[in-house]
Amino acid sequence: MDWKNSTIDALLEQALVEDKAAGDTTTNLTIDPGLRGSASIIARQEMVVCGLGAVPRFLDIFARLDRRAPAQTRFEVVSHPEIFDGVKVREDQVLAVIRHNARVLLSCERVILNLMQHLSGIATLTRQFVDAIDGTGTRILDTRKTVPGMRTLEKYAVLCGGGTNHRLDLASGILIKNNHISLGGGLPTVLSRALEFRPKGQRVQVEARSAQELEEALTFGAEAILLDNMAPEQVRQSVKRIRQFTTEKGGNTIPIEASGGMNLNTIRAYAETGVDFISVGALTHSAKAADISMRIAAETD
After folding, report:
1. Are residues 80 and 150 both part of a single domain?
2. Is 110 part of the annotated catalytic residue set?
3. 45: which of 22, 72, 175, 291 fits an S-S bond (Cβ 3.0–4.6 Å)?
4. Active-site residue 92, yes or no?
C-alpha cells in the first residue's frame, strides 16, 4: 500500500481536520508543550493487523496543520519486524511504539485508533471467512459495499485478511445485473452491446438468479457468471450446468461467482459447490471494529 498516495493523503488529512486535532483545546490547556511521550498501540484482542502504515502519515500530516515549533514535531515509530499489516497477533500484543511530543500524541490518538480499528476489523473478519473455506479452492471476494471515500483502504484491508479484490469501481469491470437487463431491452440486447463495445481486456459477467436466467446467460455468450441469492444446492446444480455447457461448446472456462447473504455459518457449504469465488459484502459493510488501544506515558530521558 502506498500510504503517500495523494488520495489517501487527502483522506487522512480530512480525518485530522474533521477532529480539529491541531486545535485540541483540552490537551493544549493541560499538557506542557515541551513534554515528550511514548505511545504504545496495543491489540486488545486476537486480530489481523491493518493500518500501521497510516501512523507516520498521520503524524507527518499533523505537522503541516500544527503551528507549534518544528522541533516539537520530531517523532519515531517503532514496530517489531514480525508485526506488519496482514499478520495475525495475539491479545495484548504491542503493535507499535510512537515517540513524539506528548501533545501531538494525544491530539492524533483518536484518528489513528479509528482507522486502525476499522481496517483491522475488516482484515480480521476477512481472515475468518478465508479460514472457513480453507482447502476448497474457492476465493473470497469483496464488493463495492464500502464507506464512501474509504474504498481503497477497505479493499486493502481485505487483501491483508487474505481475501481477493473484486472490481474497484464501475469503470474497472462489466457486471450485467437485472436492472441493466430490464432497462436495456433484455439480456440478448445488453449482452450483445457489452460484448461488442467493451474496453479491451474486460470480461463480461452476467448475474443469474434462477436456472432460467442462467441458461439465457450461457446461450447469449456470458463470459463469467454471478449466481445471486441461490441456496447451496441450486448453486451446485448451476455449477454442474456451467461446466457441462463449456465442455459441450469446447469454449473457455467460465468463472463462477456466488453471492447473496453469505455468513460464516453458510460460507463453506457454498464453497463446496465448486464455485471459483464467493463475494461477501459483509467484509466491508458489517465488520466489527477491532479492539485496539493506545497507552501514552511521559518520556523521562
Report:
1. no
2. yes
3. 291
4. no
